[in-house]
Amino acid sequence: MDWTISSLDYNVSQDGHTNVVHTIHWRVSKTSGEHTAGSYGTVGLEAPGETFVEWANIVAETAVGWAQAALGAEQIANIEASLDSQLAEMATPTQGSGTPWNAAP
Question: Is position 102 within any domain?
Fold first, then answer.
């Protein structure tokens, strides 16, 4: 799975720190052959602890780690199962939509 961070929400001042991240907006995708499935979500973070990092010093890998830790292993497994299900549907569709008069021969 490929994780990216879309945005970090932060409070300008909190618990004696400045620019404290409280919400992470994440995206994850998984590719199989020519098909790619994706998911988007947000996760809230606990108040800053001993490992506080100033907003300007956060790197993508750190934010992804925070998001994954906040989601937990079970939720990450559920996300991956959902992506696998999407990929299976793309590879062998069980549904469709459209109009027969515009369908390609």
Answer: no
62 close to 18: Cβ distance less than 8 angstroms: no
User: In terms of residue numbers, what domain contains 18?
Assistant: 2-92
User: For the chain, how many structural domains are there in total?
Assistant: 1
Whole-angstrom distance, CA of residue 35 vs CA of residue 61: 25
Is the pLDDT score of 50 beyond 70? no
82 occurs within a structural domain:
yes
Strand arrangement of the beta sheet that strand 35-44 belongs to: 2-14, 17-32, 35-44
Residue 76 lies in a domain: yes
Which of 18, 17, 26, 10 lies closest to 69 in space, CA to CA? 26
pLDDT mean over 24-50: 92
